[in-house]
Design a protein that fits this description.
The structure is a single chain. With about 450 residues, the protein is of the alpha/beta class. It has 2 domains: about 300 residues, TIM Barrel; about 55 residues, no CATH class. Helices cover about 50% and strands about 10% of the residues. Strands 1-2-3-4-5-6-7-8 form an 8-stranded parallel barrel, surrounded by 7 helices. Helix 7 links the parallel strand 3 and strand 4. The longest helix has 19 residues. It is globular and about 60 Å long. Bound molecules: S-adenosylmethionine (SAM) and iron/sulfur cluster (SF4).
Length: about 450
């Protein structure tokens, strides 16, 4: 098993490093080629304020070198809150509130996706509880219908672990990233938190990304649910998970999420091992430096102010406008929320705040559709080839947003972001092609990308 509990416990309890050791690890990190687990552990143990500041700045620099200034925005779409598992922290768990359950019909899923499209989103993440009545056939039908009947350009999926054949079906439906969080990599805590249902099986969950890659998913999304166990153990295990995928398949995790435990109806009364904001920032920085090619995703579980800080610590993706109950966007009847969110702003406001931070919001979906996925994506990012595409594609998505959604008060900040993005495109060939594509958008063409 690639999660070596003993070794990770040892690394997770490492004392604060000597300055020279921390600086050595930071120097290695600044090459943007990733870190060993040992080096990641050294940086995760840094507390001294000056060194911690340097850690965050190094992560921000590496992020900019790899992906430019762009921050990708997306929204989750909850399909069903029926669940047969007993996860103690989740509002959807079986045995909790059984009254407000809802599984969207395929038509309702399309209505929800259409509502997100009308806000300006191009990329969505389908999310669902685990119940065989709404299993793989249902999920695949929703993915296909959303592609066929809406303008959403990429559909990612966070769904319970499944076998390889089901993952092949999911891949064949056109799903982009397959995402599933291990919650905690610490087996005894995992077993305590998941007392019944299929999710009880730690190994089945841990193995799902191997199965996903075998099933043809180049891009997989992993993450710990922070707060269940010692964050250092879970953060290092997450790095270890990605290193394992890289070693075995040549591709790192495409995304790493950093969900922190939130209050949920019938959930845990207290957070077992609270993670502070400062710790969360350091976790993000260590993920960025350990796996420079990964998208690091900060959700609306976190407040607006902290999310603004996380995008300067290495995070590259933000969800926005999120509702965690099925039917939450199109205003159909109320149903059970998975957990309460903190950042309730709409897409336009989140875009504006990203611009105010000096960064460039992006609604890009290019890589999945241009074939830059899996091994190819990891290789290109490590070689420093992605930045020029990311920046140019961000500009194109903003231009399109400006043309189609300009009535919502964000015009000035979107124009500012376009100017800043254009100024940052250095490659002359891309610059010329970018001008042509922008002109095509103005003439009514859509979906222009590199
Ligand atoms: N049901 C599937 C599963 O568990 O894999 C898929 C999606 S689940 C709805 C999405 C994620 O939400 C879980 O993997 C967990 O990390 C997170 N989550 C659950 N309860 C939470 C809570 N109270 N606060 C924050 N995140 C939570
Ligand atoms: Fe069900 Fe997922 Fe919630 Fe667990 S985390 S109760 S599997 S929806």
């Amino acid at each position: 098993m690639f999660i070596d509990h003993e070794n990770i416990e040892r690394l997770a309890s490492m004392p604060e490093p000597k300055e020279a050791d921390a600086l050595r690890a930071l120097k290695a990190a600044s090459m943007a080629k990733g870190l060993s687990l040992e080096e990641a552990a050294i940086l995760l143990a840094v507390r001294e304020p000056d060194l911690a500041g340097l850690l965050i700045r190094t992560a921000a620099e590496v992020k900019e070198r790899v992906f430019g200034k762009r921050i990708v925005l997306f929204a989750p779409l909850y399909l069903s809150n029926y669940c047969t598992n007993g996860c103690k922290y989740c509002g959807f768990r079986s045995g909790g509130n059984e009254i407000a359950r809802k599984a969207l019909s395929v038509d309702e899923a399309v209505t929800e996706a259409t509502a997100l499209e009308a806000m300006g989103f191009k990329r969505i993440l389908l999310v669902t509880g685990e119940d065989p009545r709404w299993g793989i056939d249902y999920i695949v039908s929703c993915v296909r219908a959303i592609y066929e009947r809406t303008g959403i350009r990429i559909v990612h999926v966070n769904a319970p672990p499944m076998d390889t054949d089901s993952l092949k079906e999911l891949k064949a439906s056109g799903a982009g990233v397959y995402q599933s969080f291990q919650e905690t990599y610490h087996r005894p805590t995992y077993e305590d938190m998941h007392p019944f249902g299929r999710k009880k099986d730690y190994s089945f969950r841990l193995g799902v990304m191997d199965r996903a890659m075998e099933a043809g998913f180049g891009d997989v999304g992993i993450g710990p649910l922070l707060g269940l166990y010692d964050y250092r153990f879970d953060a290092l295990s997450t790095v270890s998970h990605s290193l394992h995928l890289y070693k075995k398949f040549g591709a790192h995790a495409h995304t790493i999420s950093i969900p922190r435990l939130r209050p949920a109806e019938d959930g845990l009364k207290d957070v077992p091992m609270r993670v502070t904001d400062q710790e969360l920032k350091r976790i993000v920085a260590v993920f960025r430096l350990s796996v420079p090619s990964a998208g690091i995703v900060a959700s609306t579980r976190e407040p607006a102010g902290l999310r603004a800080e996380l995008i300067h610590a290495g995070a590259t993706q933000l969800s926005a406008a999120s509702r965690t109950s099925p039917g939450g966007y199109a205003g159909t009847e109320a149903s059970l929320e998975q957990f309460s969110t903190t950042d309730h702003r709409g897409l336009a406001e989140v875009m504006k705040s990203v611009v105010d931070e000096g960064l460039i919001p992006s609604l890009c979906t290019a890589c999945y559709r241009a074939g830059r996925t899996g091994v190819d994506f990891t290789g290109r990012t490590v070689a420093g080839e992605m930045e020029k595409f990311c920046q140019a594609n961000a500009v194109l998505t903003l231009k399109e947003y400006l043309l189609d959604f300009c009535g919502n008060g964000t015009r000035e900040s979107v124009e500012r972001a376009i100017d800043q993005g254009l100024a940052g495109v250095k490659d002359q060939g891309i610059k010329k092609a970018l001008a042509e594509k922008m002109e095509a958008l103005e003439k009514g063409k859509r979906d222009q990308y590199f």
